[in-house]
Amino acid sequence: MNNKLDNHQGINLAKSETAVIESLYQDWITAVETGNTDLYLSVLSENIELIPTDAPALRTNKDYGDFLKTVFVDDSFKINQIGDREIIISGNLAYARYDYEIIRTSKNDQISYPTIRNFLDILMKNESGNWKVTKHIWNYTEPDVIP
pTM for the full model? Predict the structure, then answer.
């Protein structure tokens, strides 16, 4: 085969895979903004590991789901992406680096708490060919943030 053609097909495949991953992130944003735990968990692998700045790690999809049930009861969320998401794909692994402004609003007193967060995710393509987040890591940029 012609190397130029192979390279062109590889670029198109990478663009296609990147678009699939971007769609996964849009589903994730929708899940957070609507408080939809099932949709949220659908983007995560069964062996997800959440590594937050301000709490112990969660290590399974079930543990993450139990955690989310309390989060979505008390608060609503609005997510604003800052800049572009960087996605690098290598075989069945992908790396995603991005920043969000997350505005958490207490449902009780309607007070909003905006924070800027920096995220790093590792995604794996499962046996069915679907991308799933397997590691989800973040930190805050504000030094005095109260989560």
Answer: 0.85
